Automatic annotation (TrEMBL):
The keyword Transmembrane applies. Coiled coil: none annotated. Keywords: Membrane, Transmembrane, Transmembrane helix. The keyword Protease does not apply. It comes from Puniceicoccus vermicola. This is DUF2254 domain-containing protein. The chain crosses the membrane at residues 16-37, 57-83, 104-127, 133-154. Pfam families: DUF2254 (PF10011).
Amino acid sequence: MWNTLFYLRNRLAECLWLRPLVMCIVSVLALVVAYYAGTWFEGDHFPEISADTLKVLLGVLTSGMLVIATFAAGAMISAYASASQTATPRAFPVILSDDVSQNALSSFVGAFLFAVIALLAVMNDIFHAGARFLLLLLTLGVFWVVVMTFIRWVDRIARLGRLGTTLGQVEETVTRSIQHYQASWLWKACPPDPNPKGLGIHQSQIGYLQRIDWPRLQEIAEEANLRIQILALPGKFVTPDQCLAILSGKSKEDLNAKEINEIQNAFHIGDKRMFDEDPRFGFVVLSEIASRALSPAVNDPGTAIQIIGQFVRLLHLWKNPTREFNPEKQSRFDRLQVAPISLEGIFEDAFLGIERNGAEFKEVMIRLQKAYQAIGKMDEELQALASQHAQQTLRRAEEALAFDEDYQAVKAICKPENP
């Protein structure tokens, strides 16, 4: 249930039309409330507000808000294009879900619709004296919201699409994805058998496994008295010949087509990877940004060094969960088995591109060696992986660095006894 809500929330956050639509509805409802409230309290003594006063204020809103909303949309599109060019197209969903920009656009569109409808009502004498006073308060409130939103949005749009901001947003997204994974039952799930036997589940679609409906799989397993061993995690590219899960506990003849079809439908496949249940994808995106920064066309080793630091923070978070695991979650999925995310795979996703494309940069190689030393002190498993990659990076540096003193500087940091 919570996984589904988490997934839907992230998809809705990427819809630019949703918040403007909500603000438009809120604007119309506010005018309706003002009208009826003014009618109910018509006999009370409200300050007399002339219709001309409201016409002037609402005219300012109608003439300005549409222009500002158009300008905001254009600025956001420019920022999105800039981010795709300077970072990587895979970071676009992260930038698209920026709350400040979406709230600003929603406020401007909502204020415009509010002003247009209110102005029409005032010009046709629909509002009585009490309602006009309430409408004045609403209009002043809209002015205050628009001004504060615009000030905040200008500060945000000056940074939106810049590489540093994009890196921060991607890291925040990966952090949420890791924390979501650590808080779920998958963090301490029972792994599949080494050689699982049973009925294999396949999908006819070709694409990336985006999410798995774990509660539905557990429900089906309980109803059919099955044990399901999941062999593919979100983020994996699947084809019809690849087995997604193994069903044990019943023979193929004892399972009906409906149960098999429902199990297949629990695996959602799409044309691209998503951050929600795929923490490794965030490491891939950051690595792509670093590789682009190290390309001859960009030649920006500083960005790669910054991303190496982000990897150290993310791996530290991986080994030091900020949320306490709830054992009850594990017991709710007692009929499912799934392998944990491979740390070796995370290392490959994160560092392989930087090792390969940054081998000619002395400063990048030195920073990598220092990062491996820091990572190796976190955990024994990480120490083995860090030592392996440190030696691999050193060999790449030996091949790529033409100046021997540069290579010796990298070698001096890479100490086998303390990787």
